[in-house]
């Protein structure tokens, strides 16, 4: 939709076994798409190698995700 192509290898998250089947490709995409300004993945997890798919998602995380998506294009 945004015309963004993944430009790095996806992050291997330690909690990948807890990803819903429908989310696996999307998580791989957002972790392999890099913000061209900061060099960080659009979504790189919550630390310690975890993505935490069932955790909370703060306004700050949403803002950073949108900013990084914008700068990845």
What does this 3D model show about the protein?
- It is a single chain.
- This protein is mostly helical and 73 residues long.
- Helices cover 32% and strands 0% of the residues.
- The protein has helices spanning 24-32, 59-72.
- The mean pLDDT is 93.
In short:
By secondary structure, the chain is mainly alpha-helical. It contains 2 helices and no strands.
Number of helices: 2
| Percent of sequence in beta strands | under 5%
Count of strand segments: 0
Q: Approximately how much helix is present in the residues?
A: 25-40%
Mean pLDDT: 93
Distance between the termini: 11 Å
N-to-C SSE series? HH
Q: Which quaternary structure do these chains form?
A: single chain
Please state the CA-atom Rg, rounded to the nearest Å. Answer: 12 Å
Q: Tell me the major beta sheet.
A: none
Contiguous low-pLDDT stretches (5 residues minimum) are: none
Structural class by secondary-structure content: mainly alpha
Shape: globular
């Amino acid at each position: 939709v945004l015309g963004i192509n993944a430009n790095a290898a996806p992050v291997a998250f330690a909690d990948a076994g807890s990803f819903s089947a429908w989310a696996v490709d999307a998580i791989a995409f957002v972790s392999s798409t890099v913000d061209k300004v900061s060099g960080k993945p659009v979504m790189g997890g919550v630390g310690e190698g975890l993505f935490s798919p069932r955790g909370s998602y703060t306004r700050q995380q949403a803002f950073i995700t949108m900013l990084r998506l914008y700068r990845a294009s």
